[in-house]
Every structure is written in C-alpha cells, then in structure tokens.
Amino acid sequence: MSATAALHIRGVTLTPVEVPLKLPLGTSAATVSDAPLLLIDLHTAEGISGNAYLFCYRRSGMKAIAALLQDAVDLVCGHAVEPLPLGVMLARRLALIGNVGLVRMALSGLDVALWDANAKAAGLPLAAMLGAGPGRMRAYNSNGLGLLGVRGTAAQVPLLLERGFTALKLRLGYPSLQQDLDVLQAVRALLPAGVQLMVDYNQALTLQEALLRGRRLQEQGVYWLEEPIRHDDWDGCATLARELNVPLQMGENLDGPKDVWRMIAHKACDFLMPDLARIGGISGWVQSASICAAAGVDISSHLYPEVSAHLLLASDSRHWLEYADWADAILETPLVIEDGHAVVNAAPGVGLRWNTEAVRRLTVQ
Question: Which of 67, 99, 170, 259 is the most exposed, fewest CB within 10 Å of its CB?
Fold first, then answer.
C-alpha cells in the first residue's frame, strides 16, 4: 500500500470487554474494580484496519456508545479515511442529538481508528504522522492509591515505584482534612527523594473546602491539585487557580477544543489534561494541544496511555503522561515503561494489537 493511497471505510467490528483492574481504583465518587472497554476495529476496503478502544465507565455506556458508533460508521461507509472532513460531516449529521457526552466519545473512538489506519497505510507510528517520530515520554503511575486508608494506601506505594516511576497520583477526598493529611504523609514518607506526588479529588469538594484543603496541601509540597471541585464550575476553578500556590490541574471532562480555549481564557487552571475520548480523539487533541502551546499552558494526558504517548511527543507544551495499565490485559504487546518513561517505538499506527484469546475470555454481552 502506497503512503499516498486513499483508504475507504468498509465497516466496523465493536467488541465490549470488561477488564479486572490489578489494583482497584477507589475515588471520592466510586470504586472502580473493572474497566469496561469497547474495542474498535475499523475495516477498510483496502484491507488495512484501524484500532482504538474507549473506556466507557459502565456496561450500559458500552452499549450506548457502540450503537452510536455503529450508526456513525454506517453514515460514512464507502468514504475515504479522512479524519477531519469526516469529523465535520458527522458532527453536522448528529447535531440534533448533540455532539457531547456519549456522541462525542463515539466520534472520538472513530477518529482514533481513522488515524491509526492512515498511519499504518503510511508505515509510520502516529507520532511520526504528527511530526514527532518515536521517542520516550515521562509518565506518572496512576494505578491504585485510592481511598484505602493509611495502611492500605501505603502498602501499594512500593509496587507503584517499580519500573522507575518518578511520580505517582494519590486520590484524596476523605470525610475530614486530617484524614487526607494522614494518608498523604504516610505515602510521602515512603517516596524516595525527587519522586513527585499528584493529588486528585475527583470533584469531591465545595469551593470553600477546596480552598481550605488546598492551602494545607500546598504546605505538603504536592505537585498539583486535580479536580477538587465540579469540573464545570469555571468561576470556582478560576478562584482556586488565583488563590492557591499549588498548581490546579483540570481538563479531563472538557468537551472538545472549544472548552480548552474557554478554560484557558477564563484562567480556570494552571495545567490542562484533556481526555482523548472527550476532547475529540486525535483530531481534537491536536487542536487542543495547539491552543495550550499558544497560551503557554502545560498539557498532560488523561488515560489512554498507548495513544496519548504519541500525542504528547508531538505536543509543544507536553508535561506528563498518565499511565494506567487497564488495557494491558487485552493487548498483544502492552505499552513499555522504562525508567519511568513510556516508550513509543517505530511500529506503524498507535500500537494497539489485541490479544485474541484474552479478548475472547473477557468479552461481555
């Protein structure tokens, strides 16, 4: 296949799987023990497939997103594999439903598969398609460290430092500030010198409580404070960014590049971390990364480390890759971590090849 030859959409296979997490993730909202992943295999008339997956939060989410994604592929069947014009076309066709939420996630998954197919046809890794090439991206370990109390949380720290990670993420949001501080200090005591600790509240706090806890946490030297209040409280986020010395990390719930521009214009964060499935896939990420670079805002990723590593390598203001091993169980070759860095090799595409036996075993109805 020539690098310039056009591919044409023939159909899609959607496979819902549920992957047990090695370390259940306890947050202020819920405890996640299994990851519902929708696997996407986009087929082309030329025989090249594009692969992607979506973390759908619940089994019901997988069903709904699968129906929307199938409908989207049916609408563009026979069209050339051109992510940007197809994205515009589908956004217009689905406008009356609303290009947000589950629709946005479905179209994002399709966008990733389209880019993957084109990168494979060109014989290039996605990073190279975006002008960066293979390389290494520093990562923090985001597995575990949920709301397990002092003893349970501290017990996980040595496991998460394996493979040379120099940063970990800790979930907080206990009933009292003192409980948060007790867990934080227990974890901090186990970290080697130079290892950073990010804190995530998963939108658990009121503005006033976030100001109170944020001031105490900044005394503890946390690296960033992530989503302490509702993600859509723009004024509250701006207040936190202005009043606290600890950097405010937001962005995983932003709906497309327009929200990135609005959040930055509102001065509602210090750092920004788009989610691949909510930001508009690879196309939306590239636009968002350009906005961040122009504004001088550091950009990190939220989940999807296999694809996000490529995207960050091609982003001017790249900051940290969030590493979660959720997809490892269904991948033939999981993302390689060496010395705390994700390794993007020269394999064509985004690097998602399914372990067929594991997929068969973990498929759900």
Answer: 67
Residue range(s) defining the domain that contains residue 218: 128-356
What distance in Å separates the CA atoms of residue 231 and residue 29, rounded to the nearest whole number?
14
HSE (side-chain half, CA atoms, 13 Å) at 263: 30
Structure tokens at 308: 């996000």
Do 145 and 107 lie in a common domain?
no
Per-residue exposure over 118-155, b if at least 16 CB sit within 10 Å of its own CB, e if not: bbbbbebbbbbbbebeebbbbbbbbbbbbbbeeeebbe
CATH number of the CATH domain containing 261: 3.20.20.120
Q: 143-147, 260-264, 301-305: which has the minimum mean pLDDT?
A: 143-147
Rounded to an integer, what is the distance from CA 20 to the centroid of its chain? 18
The span from the CA of 141 to the CA of 169, in Å, is 6
**Is residue 58 scored above 60 in pLDDT?**
yes
The CA distance from 361 to 356, in Å, is 9
0.85 exceeded by the pTM? yes
CATH number at residue 101: 3.30.390.10
Q: Please give the distance of CA 11 from its chain centroid, rounded to a whole number.
A: 26
CA distances from 274 to 43, 100, 153, 202, 342 (A): 27, 15, 27, 15, 18
Question: Token pair for residue 69?
Answer: 């994604």
Give tens-digit pLDDT for 213-271. Answer: 999 999 999 999 999 999 999 999 999 999 999 999 999 999 999 999 999 999 999 99
Determine what percent of the chain is predicted with pLDDT higher than 90: 93
